[in-house]
Amino acid sequence: xxxxxxxxxxxxxxxxxxxxxxxxxxxxxxxxxxxxxxxxxxxxxxxxxxxxxxxxxxxxxxxxxxxxxxxxxxxxxxxxxxxxxxxxxxxxxxxxxxxxxxxxxxxxxxxxxxxxxxxxxxxxxxxxxxxxxxxxxxxxxxxxxxxxxxxxxxxxxxxxxxxxxxxxxxxxxxxxxxxxxxxxxxxxxxxxxxxxxxxxxxxxxxxxxxxxxxxxxxxxxxxxxxxxxxxxxxxxxxxxxxxxxxxxxxxxxxxxxxxxxxxxxxxxxxxxxxxxxxxxxxxxxxxxxxxxxxxxxxxxxxxxxxxx
Amino acid sequence: xxxxxxxxxxxxxxxxxxxxxxxxxxxxxxxxxxxxxxxxxxxxxxxxxxxxxxxxxxxxxxxxxxxxxxxxxxxxxxxxxxxxxxxxxxxxxxxxxxxxxxxxxxxxxxxxxxxxxxxxxxxxxxxxxxxxxxxxxxxxxxxxxxxxxxxxxxxxxxxxxxxxxxxxxxxxxxxxxxxxxxxxxxxxxxxxxxxxxxxxxxxxxxxxxxxxxxxxxxxxxxxxxxxxxxxxxxxxxxxxxxxxxxxxxxxxxxxxxxxxxxxxxxxxxxxxxxxxxxxxxxxxxxxxxxxxxxxxxxxxxxxxxxxxxxxxxxxxxxxxxxxxxxxxxxxxxxxxxxxxxxxxxxxxxxxxxxxxxxxxxxxxxxxxxxxxxxxx
Lengths: 308, 376
Prior knowledge:
heterodimer; A: mainly alpha; ABC transporter involved in vitamin B12 uptake, BtuC
């Protein structure tokens, strides 16, 4: 059976496949940003962390031959980026949003600089689990060829959702995020906890980058990210700082992102560039629909200065 | 604590020092931003030197090349000035909303759409209109489209409470998709085979060079825009109202200031400048709207604006400095075998250090007359 046998039925299938394949970086970045924002700080620099994570994962995978060591290396670099952000934001008069933008430019520049020698060599890919072997259709098989990181991301979303509600660490994070004063009254140091939360967020975001370079699209180049790290910040707002919401929203974004290429593959040649804008338009519409000028967003951590 | 206790008290103006005190106070307050900015640049360059030394290259040679490539000869100075021209306008796109307390980072989208609008409106004018009319029409088209684009982010911020940083960035991605769609489809010049573009402007529509220089008129327009913006912000009641609203929105509203109109008006003006940058790029450099418009001017403008602390006049030297660093990129690449991203690393390092140094404001007694001894 050839690739076009499905006709236009290929579009929803491709969107589903895309939702699973494209969503994984969104899942990790948005979960990371959720941890950071639940502690009361915004890290807008996750785009830089993501790209640097993609580069370091690819480089380490090329050198060691192990993609999983690549993922670990990405996590380490992501944590370092988060620590730098968290450390700088500890100081008074420093704007966390502006530092995020600066860290993004720094991360991108450093990733392109150090990643130059790794554009050519090819790295071993992360393994995928073939869940589609029951079907004879190659499209279904490839759609259900699910990467391990996607499953880890799904499990992590559920775990974080549970942990935020039911564990001591989750409680500490929520207290610090809602009120620095309340946290101090409990004997907690908000700056230290935000530092750790930003580092954890950076480590998770970098896994998203590792997925980009080691699975899909599965190569390292300077155009590897199309703003996933930034969209994920908007996605966290949409998901109301809820990890399971982040997972579902990521699937939605992945599906929207897959619409353009899917239409192109079935021969729709007119206007498919507009479909590339679908995730951005969707994010914007969602933000307009869910924001309000008069009251803070439902579920927003109290200490977060998203709209001053 | 009484209110009086918080008020800075001036010493009685007795003795010789008293006469100089207002002068010294003014000097101290004005020196602080310059001193801190210079300190930040020195620290940033030092960190960057460590990085360059760590990968086994000579920082000294790098800075020499950077100087030679940016400002070492008349040729390189002109090159730097040409690169600074769009940065002047895109930095204004960040600096003006910043005076309202908004962080707008979507100038790239306004540049792209401004260039596209300018190129599109020029096409029907080819052969029938005077160049001056064409330039005015192109500038208006670019500014209107850019103004709508960034003004929309301001509108959403004020009337819908949407975070303007993320909204402007999303709009920027949408703008790029829109341009790709239009130059691949409806506005595509059939003659542009490999590189989709709008129709090429005829030579008489091209914005020329400044007499005696190899720099296009965009530099003059950018400098004038910076000076005009400075007058607007620092010397008009509109600018004063904007600064009040940027300092404290509640206070501005209680005073009856039209905060909504201020936000939309100033973000639209900011977007108009970025749109104009795109139009100039088309009319002076590219000759048509194409993918080359997505050159990162919008993102470099963010750095310029923050380095200039959102002061429109300070943008001029900062943009020329950044233009110089940018211009030296090619030389560094050829002579030292460093990747072109070297300039990006330097910019990123400077950016982080400069923002970090914001924390130094008000910490030094020498710059803060309120802390001076009364007997001074």
